[in-house]
Amino acid sequence: LPKAVRAEPIEAKGVLYVACSNGVLYAFKIGEKELEQIWAFETGGVLESSPYLAGKTIFIGSSNRKVYAVDAEKGTKLWEASVGGPIQATPLLSNSTLFVPCGDKSMYAFDTTQNGLPLWKFQTKGALRSSPLVVGAQVLFGSEDGKFYCVNARSGEQEWSFAARGPIRQSAARGDGAVYFGSDDKSLYCVPIDVE
Predict the structure, then answer these.
(1) Is pTM, for the whole model, over 0.85?
(2) Which of 2, 26, 108, 145 is the most exposed place for a label (fewest CB within 10 A)?
(3) Are 130 and 122 in contact (CB under 8 A)?
(4) Rounded to an integer, what distance in angstroms lies between the CA atom of residue 31 and that of residue 194?
């Protein structure tokens, strides 16, 4: 590859999808001894997060302030949507809504059945560097402002937040009635959640 790979590749049905820092998303057929390139999709920005595959569509965010929906078989653009800053974390699809964490301190929601129609934007006070977690009708994510947020997945309204003592840069893990996440304050937190 022409430049560094800074994100985890994903594999599905013998195809490897690789986001490269040259701004190109590659698809390779996995052979016995080598990879055969199937297609390459150019975003025009830097790719620093893994793609997200859902059925025959692959979603990827770029530093050029756009998120793309790409045909996973052909490598052609289905649609694109704009955000207010670079995307450095993997988007997440849930119930046809694509949640996109962004470096402009916001979480975005797009309707994938309407070619990326914007649904809502939730503003924090720090950049979002990790993928969200969806539990029922709740979107859960941390911010570099040191808070962990719970937002209604349908409306984008905040339900609650929890204040850590340092920036939160990694995704949370779901447990039985709780979420777990770490912070730059050298702490691991366990926060109870209500599943709707």
Answers:
(1) yes
(2) 2
(3) no
(4) 46
